Amino acid sequence: MDTALLLLLENPLIKRRLAKKRRFWTHNINRSRERFGEFFHLYKSLQEDSERFYRYFRMKESTFSYILEKVEWRIKKQNSNFRKAISPIEKLALTSRFLATGLSYRALADSFRMGFSTVASIVKDVCTAIWEELQPIHLGIPSEQDLLEISRHFYKKWNFPNCFGCIDGKHIRIRCPSNTGTSYYNYKQYFSIVLQAVADANCRFIFIDTGAFGKQSDGGIFRESALYQHLVTGKLNIPADRNLPNSDTKLPYVLLGDEAYPLLNHLLKPYPRKNLDAQKTIFNYRLSRARRVVECAFGILAAKWRILTKAIETSPENAEKIVNCICVLHNIIIDKEGIALIEEPKESTDSKKNRKNNSSTEQARDIRNCYMQYFNNEGAVPFQYNVL
Fold first, then answer.
1. Pairing with 35, which of 90, 98, 110, 286 sits 20 to 30 Å away (CA)?
2. Domain spans of the chain?
3. How far apart are CA 100 and CA 53, in angstroms?
4. pTM exceeding the 0.85 threshold for the entire prediction
5. Are strands 192-199 and 205-213 parallel, antiparallel or unpaired?
6. Are 96 and 12 within 8 A, CB to CB?
């Protein structure tokens, strides 16, 4: 090393400044991370108990290893001259714990013996890596054959033919963003972004749209989404119209939505609740019974990933990354571990959704009427009359 530089470094004033600066590079508590950090004293023990591993990470060890294998190269960093880099497996463990519990960055920083900003950076990087690496595999755009398979499951499980998905929106609570006015303030009187999703018959997501303002209605969000554009322009790989089972009536494949959505050729919604006759009541019941799979999907999502039960304390942009990651994890776990049998949930009683600007075409109304006639004739099932 140059003599002049050595003399400079030996200067007491320079040495004090360097020492003061480096003192905050790693906090004294965090220096013992590999000895006392939660990951190091708990992970190996969890591996020895599959039930506790699942309860801690909300997934099996095989699923955890699969995700790690896919994203490891994206989140791995090289050791520096000053400190050892945090391993990918510890980063994934921390992020999984954050999503599973909703603990604050500060609480996780204390538990894992890391800095606050380090935890925030890890969560953002891992969520982004999971989305970009695994979304094409587990939440990619379905092919025509995929939609046909989904429709077969809907008919088998929920007695609704020619259905390739059910759509609904879920408000994701967030911390009040600065300088946004009431854009994120929803009718439930808290700040949120909206996750709009389409679920298949097994509560698996096939389309998602995340990040809309909380004040927007489901119908308004839908009309601004890529899904709507694909529906009206025919770019969605929807199969050709097909005869309903045991019938000569040929009808299009459809999504199922609630009253907040527009009635379209490929999207059915219930008849208005006023002046319902017996046939329309039965149609509404059959549609509602099938459509609840998306409500089940949201319920499973929130029960497993407890971050969704409280306000996400990040910017709306980072909250969107977190929600996208959770939706991919939801599909990965179903693909790898399956899903328990779905109990039929109670009928939704939410009547406050904005239902404006949902005018329909005559052709769309004719399609709904044909489905109504089918459910009251060839497609009738004995239990449907209990609703009357």
1. 98
2. 37-137, 139-340+357-387
3. 12
4. yes
5. antiparallel
6. no
